[in-house]
Design a protein that fits this description.
- Helices cover 23% and strands 26% of the residues.
- The relative contact order is 0.12.
- Among the domains are: 118 residues, Beta Complex (paz domain), CATH 2.170.260; 128 residues, Response regulator (Rossmann fold, 3-Layer(aba) Sandwich), CATH 3.40.50.
- The protein is α+β, with helices and mostly antiparallel strands.
- This is Piwi domain-containing protein.
Length: 769
């Protein structure tokens, strides 16, 4: 029997809404998309799905599962009745016919990895790469960018489509292991290699020694160098009467030079590669080993290498279009036996899409002057900013950059005054000790802070201008972390290669925002005319999670939320950042009740500050922009994260009846859907929106290219509207999102989160607010 009085009602389960209609604003423009229409001519085809589990006898992780399945098909062809099937590389297998039994178990002995392949393919989930030098681009650091192709079937309003795109992924440069380590650590002499880093880098990589036509996997390094590393070897002694082999101790160096007759010139004083197992090591001299091709590099790139990869992957839109069309025609995916038997055929031309170009928002700067962006671009040269700050307590540090620091800050002061920013002369500039130039980046930063402390420049300083010695310097990360996390000091880094008015203007836009200024507003925002926002107190949230560096599972995830202030304005925000469990993609502390009954969640202060800056109004509408979650997590966004926001709201305002209406939008960086003009060599116009043909057949989504970008680098953001209790029309919502992407563009990343396209490195910059 249930006790009288009852318990609290269960929260309402929210469902993803269906598309209410289509937008019509803007002028139409015909485009092409890298989706290819798929037809299925056999209507009664039946697919059988099977779950696959692959385990090793010693419970180790099984690599190259596709090879295991291929080997199974060869070994047990009769048991499988000669049936062919498709395997996704993980846990699922499909067949057009029923297998002899619904549950089958096989024992497979993998072949030795014999290195006889002249040409090889590497499938990575929905992407495949071909070992062809034409697809290689040297990135540096022992890393090669390899061009491949992404392919996936998608259900769209236009029917089933094949999405084919060019992609670039990092692989280790094949060749001698010692050459790779020198390039990766940027040293000339093998004696200078950091072997602790080398051990971490080499683990699980595959190598082929030149004396054997076989591939091995590296599990580690020898504890001693080659000439001192002993192992046990059985030898037959002529002096032994019974001819039984004796066990002797011999060094790796002696074994290869005397017993194998291999000359070793560089390995004597270097560690050996261990390619055995934990019970039985197998040592190979490092100079005998080469890295085999197509081994993916999954660690974080240095900034300079990342920039090199981006530059090498850039492609003119028409070149990319031709490359994709040629791939579909040449690889003839529908010639696959399973697809052919299913009656699947793929068109060889890109799908045409009806798109629209939205009207570009007008910006308002100082002195009530309007700025009209053209082609998604605008500048603030000789413009007075909307709200400026006064800078009278600032410092300059120089990390051995060859420049005239005095001229830089004099030019900065002059440029700032033209923009309405009153800047006084800085405190005494601090130059790095020349002896520190060869030190590690972290040590250089620590030394600089010691100098700042001795000069008493860390107290009561508004911000520090940091002059870096090179673009994409390794000092940047440690310097930012030290300033923002340890001291809470706003900092701006510059690289003085080409100092001019345009460069200084961009620098000052960032400085002004970081110090609380406002560079510009939307004109409709300044005149209080934003539809559905001007009449009802509305709070805008931007939310996302940074999962740390690739290849590192021990680094906490960082959740960040920003909330708008000063309703009915939408250009000022407060940030809330919190660490959580590694690889946790959902935000788990939006509402966090403590034992004393108080809420310590991320939303509490955001709600409090919204009311404080909005004349005491509490938000009755909340627009949530959620960045970067997959479709499989949409339900969690609605029923976990939104529910936490609601609980924080009810706890803060002590009300369970008067609850706000939500509009929830997920922004995805769709890496593989591209839009093209038919013959133009330029990107599609900024403001291009697509909500037909290639969108979801039922759900409410659309693609938007809000801004201009370098030719060959643009891609649309994919917006999914999960919930719309506020009741925006498709046109209102598309134009609002387009306008938000122009809000305070040269501000901190935390502010730009509201335009989810610009969400990146939020956790690194939160302190600048």
């Amino acid at each position: 029997m249930e006790e009288a009085g009852g318990s609290c009602p269960k929260p309402t389960k929210r469902s993803i809404i269906a598309r209410p209609g289509f937008g019509s604003s803007g002028h139409p423009i015909p485009l092409l998309s890298n989706h290819f229409k798929v037809s299925v001519n056999v209507t009664d085809v039946v697919f059988y799905q099977y779950s696959v589990s692959i385990t090793a006898e010693d419970n180790r992780v099984v690599d190259e599962k596709r090879k295991i399945i291929d080997r199974l098909c060869q070994t047990y062809s009769c048991e499988l009745a000669g049936k062919s099937f498709a395997y996704d590389g993980e846990k699922t297998l499909y067949s057009l016919v029923r297998l002899p039994q619904s549950w089958m178990e096989f024992t497979v002995v993998p072949k030795e990895s014999i290195a006889k392949r002249q040409s090889r393919w590497l499938p990575l989930r929905q992407t495949f790469f071909h070992d062809d030098p034409k697809n290689f681009t040297d990135v540096g650091g022992g890393i090669t960018g390899v061009r491949g192709y992404h392919s996936s079937f998608r259900t769209t309003q236009g029917g089933l489509s094949l999405n084919m795109d060019v992609t670039m992924t990092m692989f280790l440069t094949p060749g001698p292991v010692i050459d790779f380590l020198k390039a990766n650590q940027n040293v000339q002499d093998p004696c200078c290699i950091d072997w602790v880093k080398a051990k971490s880098m080499l683990k699980n990589l595959r190598v082929k020694p030149r004396h054997r036509n076989k591939e091995y996997k590296i599990i580690g390094l020898s504890q001693k160098v080659c000439k001192e590393q002993y192992f046990s070897m059985k030898v037959r002694s002529h002096d032994c009467a019974n001819g039984e082999p004796q066990v002797v101790k011999i060094t790796v160096y002696e074994y290869f030079t005397k017993h194998c007759g291999i000359e070793l010139t560089d390995s004597a004083c270097l560690p050996c590669l261990d390619v055995g197992n934990t019970k039985q090591p197998i040592y190979l001299p490092i100079e005998l080993c080469t890295l085999v091709p197509l081994q993916r590099y999954a660690k974080a790139l240095f900034p300079t290498l990342r920039a090199s990869l981006v530059a090498s992957s850039r492609q003119n839109p028409q070149d990319r279009k031709r490359t994709v069309i040629d791939a579909v025609r040449n690889y003839r995916c529908d010639d696959d036996s399973l697809l052919s038997a299913s009656g699947v055929s793929i068109e060889r031309q890109m799908m045409q899409v009806d798109s629209r170009v939205l009207e570009t928002p007008t910006l308002r700067v100082g002195n009530k002057e309007d700025v009209f962006p053209r082609n998604g671009r605008w500048n603030f040269n000789y413009k007075t900013l909307f709200k400026t700050t006064c800078i009278d307590r600032w410092a300059v540090v120089n990390f051995s950059a060859p420049c005239y620091t005095d001229k830089i800050f004099h030019d900065l002061i002059s440029c700032g005054r033209r923009m309405g920013i009153q800047i006084e002369s800085p405190r005494t500039p601090i130059w790095e000790d020349p002896k520190s130039r060869g030190d590690k980046p972290l040590d250089r930063v620590e030394n600089m802070f010691e100098m700042l402390n001795r000069a008493k420049l860390l107290k009561d300083t508004q911000f520090i201008l940091c002059v870096l010695p090179e673009k994409k310097s390794d000092i940047y990360g440690p310097w930012k972390k030290k300033c923002l996390c340890d001291f809470g000091i706003v900092t701006q880094c510059i690289y003085p290669s080409t100092i001019n008015d345009r460069y200084l203007t961009n620098v000052l836009l960032k400085i002004n925002s970081k110090l609380g200024g406002i560079n510009s507003l939307l004109a409709i925002e300044d005149s209080m005319k934003i539809p559905l926002i001007k009449d009802t107190p509305t709070m805008i949230l931007g939310m996302g999670v940074s999962l740390g560096f690739p290849g590192r599972s021990d680094i906490p995830s960082v959740a960040a939320v920003v909330g708008s202030l000063y309703w009915p304005h939408i250009s000022r925000y407060r940030a809330s950042v919190r660490a959580q469990s590694p690889k946790e993609e959902m935000i788990d502390a939006l509402y966090n009740p403590l034992a004393n009954g108080k809420d310590d969640g991320m939303m509490r202060k955001l709600l409090e500050d919204f009311c404080h800056t909005s004349n005491g109004n509490k938000p009755k509408h909340i627009i949530v922009f959620r960045n970067g979650v997959a479709e499989s997590q949409f339900s969690k966004v609605l029923n976990v994260e939104v529910e936490q926001i609601l609980k924080a709201y009810q706890d803060h305002f002590k009300s369970e009846v008067d609850i706000p209406k939500f509009t929830v939008i997920v922004a995805q960086k769709d890496r593989h859907t591209k839009l093209f003009q038919d013959i133009s060599p330029e990107n599609v116009p900024s403001g291009t929106v697509v909500d037909t043909e290639i969108v979801h057949p039922r759900n409410y989504d659309f693609y938007l290219c809000a801004h201009a970008s370098m030719t060959g680098t643009s891609r649309p953001a994919h917006y999914h509207i999960l919930l719309d209790e506020i009741g925006f029309s498709p046109d209102e919502l598309q134009n609002l999102i387009h306008a938000l992407s122009y809000v305070n563009q040269r501000s901190t990343t935390a502010i730009r989160t509201v335009a989810p396209l610009r969400y990146a490195n939020l956790a690194d910059r939160w302190g600048s607010l």
